[in-house]
């Protein structure tokens, strides 16, 4: 039942994403006219070989408008990225729920042992679907973005991808890329 509601929510989000993409194109075409005017004004200034107060004020107004247009387009793109992240999150939740329920798709049967090349391909595909954070100028990145550490009391959620240190039988330690399945508060692992 939860999978059906997730499917309908994903379909709804895809529709919203489609509208945001159309809105992005409208914003871009709206700002195109202003950019052409800036270019023409620069060409006229170069033919006269001087910057008159008229052109200075005209360019200032055109650049202000272009900046506002770019910010509007940027805001629409940020909303689209948020929708994409929400869709990916729902798909990941659905995948984890199916894995817990024991339902596997034919495209992704239960895995046993994989060779290094297959693992690298899976890692590459996983890296392409990681969430993307694009901050505004002066905005600091959130925890776990890049080299920003998490808070000391942070507990990884099931489905999170982590770098984990494992000890081999011989006592060697290796770092692996792993997916969190559960967290034990008693062992702090």
Walk me through the structure.
The chain has 3 helices and 2 strands, in the order αααββ. It has a two-stranded antiparallel sheet. It has helices at residues 2-48, 53-101, 116-128; strands spanning 161-167, 173-179. The longest helix has 49 residues, at 53-101. By secondary structure, it is mostly helical. This is SGF29 factor.
- How many alpha or pi helices? 3
End-to-end separation: 32 Å
Mean pLDDT: 83
Point out poorly predicted stretches: none
- H and E string: HHHEE
Provide the spatial order of strands within the biggest beta sheet.
1-2
Estimated share of beta-strand residues? 5-15%
Supply the number of structural domains. Answer: 2
Radius of gyration: 25 Å
- The outline comes out as elongated
What is the number of strand segments? 2
* Helix and strand composition category: mainly alpha
Helix content: 55-70%
Main β-sheet description: 2 strands, antiparallel
